[in-house]
Amino acid sequence: MKVSHIFNILREFPKIVLSKAFPSYSYKGVINAQIRVYNRLKKSALDMSENELLNSLIISRIETWPRAAPKEVEYAHYAPLLEYPHKGLEDVIWAIVEWECILSRQEYVFNRLSKMGLSPWEVSEEIRRFRLQVMGDIQESIQKKVKKTETSVVGRTWKPTAFGILTIISGCFAITFGGIEATISALLVRTGFPPSPVLGKSVGGIAISSILLIVLGIICLIGGIFALRRRFWRLAFVCLMSGAVSNVLLLGVPGGLWYMIPAAIFLERGKKEFGDSRRR
């Protein structure tokens, strides 16, 4: 073995150690990172089509620093793939790895391999073998690590939608009656209503009740909107409690039950459709 070859191997040894100790340093780290991002997108954005998910994956990689080239150059490079409607996850990950590890560094890679004593034909052969190895690793990683969420998407039901609508209606009632109570308490205070055992001492209670109803109503509105999108199950559960309390304040215990019972059933039956309720 030539002395120059030994020197080149020793010079590359730190990079080999880094790639083993820190997998994200190598192209396999890029593959795994894209699969993780894809799984998160597929889990949280159930309404997006596969092509939209893959476009989001590409754009998120372009926006991530450090970049292999200026942002404008990367957008221009990925533009044909972004416009292609029949791409798959394997195509996207390969395009990212090819761009970051080969195309954007083609001259550098060629020069490095040439300095190691390889002929142009051997350099081309090494790059070809590297492409085949990367493609095999991509296919293997996708088979092992991509989450199967097709069942969740196909199995969508009306239950989270019913819960969301019921919660939004409850929130609107709470905000409306809370506003009415706040107006009444303000008018009583402004007109100097005389204190009395029947009503005068309850003005403060009316004001507190109105504020509580408005806050609970806002929580129900926000949670109901996210429930329609099947996101944040924990927030939906908080809304269930908020809606029950606001209905009890407005209509008493029977009024709280008319909301609590059907809403709890809808929320529990539709729990698996919420993105953050599915465990890996």
Give structural notes.
- Helix content is 76%, strand content 0%.
- It folds into two domains: 3-153, no CATH class; 156-277.
- It has eleven helices and no strands.
- The longest helix is centred in the last third of the chain and has 37 residues, at 233-269.
- It is an all-alpha fold and 280 residues long.
- It has helices at 3-21, 27-44, 50-63, 71-83, 89-101, 106-115, 120-145, 150-154, 159-190, 203-228, 233-269.
- Helix 2 (27-44) packs across helix 3 (50-63) and helix 5 (89-101) runs antiparallel to helix 7.
Query: DSSP strand (E) fraction?
Result: under 5%
Q: C-alpha Rg, in Å?
A: 30 Å
Number of DSSP-assigned strands: 0
Query: How many structural domains can be distinguished in the coordinates?
Result: 2
Summarize the amount of helix as a percent range: over 70%
Query: Uncertain runs with pLDDT below 50, 5 residues or more?
Result: 1-25, 149-154, 195-201
How would you describe the shape? elongated
Q: Separation of termini?
A: 50 Å
Main sheet: strands, sense, barrel? none
Helices, by number, come to 11
Tell me the series of helices and strands, N- to C-terminal. Answer: HHHHHHHHHHH
**SSE-based structural type:** mainly alpha
What is the arithmetic mean of pLDDT?
77
Q: Secondary structure elements and their pairing?
A:
Layout: H1 3-21, H2 27-44, H3 50-63, H4 71-83, H5 89-101, H6 106-115, H7 120-145, H8 150-154, H9 159-190, H10 203-228, H11 233-269
Which properties best describe this structure?
mainly alpha, 11 helices, 0% strand, disordered N terminus
